[in-house]
Amino acid sequence: MARVFCAGYRRDSTFRQRLRILDWDFADATTNYLTHVLHPYPAKFIPQIPNALIQELSSVEDTVLDIFCGSGTTLVESLLLKRNAVGIDANPLACLVSRAKTTTFSRSEMDSLSALSVRAQELAASLTIPIPNLLFQHASPKLCTLVQGFSCYTGILSSNS
Ligand SMILES: C[S@@+](CC[C@H](N)C(=O)[O-])C[C@H]1O[C@@H](n2cnc3c(N)ncnc32)[C@H](O)[C@@H]1O
């Protein structure tokens, strides 16, 4: 039976000791991988913090509940660590971003997105107008990065299941 994890679930001293010896600096950590790069959000976690806590405080197939989920950093890390994830937030934008970041696509949907991204790259490269269309030229690589992020994320989640 899967358990719902909430803060304070494990209060034993071994657990507290393990949390104390973890290096919480993450100074050299890469933080913009997979779908974490999708949208900015105020006071976002770096993914390494919820990742470390989820690993210490829960087990595979547990359910992680983040009642102030914001942009869904904890939810993404929970799913990557093979936990179920539930998020709540008062801000509809937070719910939308969280839902988008935890969405996986079918193979054919991924193919369509990849084709769209390639087409956007081609169009951006072919623009020769004297005043560059900065928005489009910057949006195109970002779209490509996003599609790659979703592709990897979907791949990891499907290999988890
Ligand atoms: C610091 S942000 C969380 C950021 C999140 N950890 C992330 O990585 O994106 C705090 C969130 O709590 C939400 N919040 C504040 N008070 C709330 C309440 N009473 N009920 C639900 N959500 C609330 C805010 O809308 C905000 O999105």
Describe this structure in words.
With 161 residues, the protein is mainly alpha-helical. It folds into two domains: 4-101, Vaccinia Virus protein VP39 (Rossmann fold, 3-Layer(aba) Sandwich); 107-160. The protein is 52% helix and 6% strand. The protein contains six helices and three strands. It has a three-stranded parallel β-sheet with strand order 1-2-3, with helices on one face. Helix 5 (107-126) packs antiparallel against helix 6 (134-160). The protein is elongated. It binds S-adenosylmethionine (SAM).
Strand and helix map with partners:
Elements: E1 4-5, H1 13-21, H2 48-57, E2 63-66, H3 73-80, E3 84-87, H4 92-101, H5 107-126, H6 134-160
Parallel strand pairs: 1-2, 2-3
Helix pairs in contact: 2-3, 5-6
S-adenosylmethionine is lined by residues 41, 43-45, 68, 70-71, 73, 88-91, 94.
Summarize the structure.
The chain is mainly α and 161 residues long. It has helices at residues 13-21, 48-57, 73-80, 92-101, 107-126, 134-160; strands at residues 4-5, 63-66, 84-87.
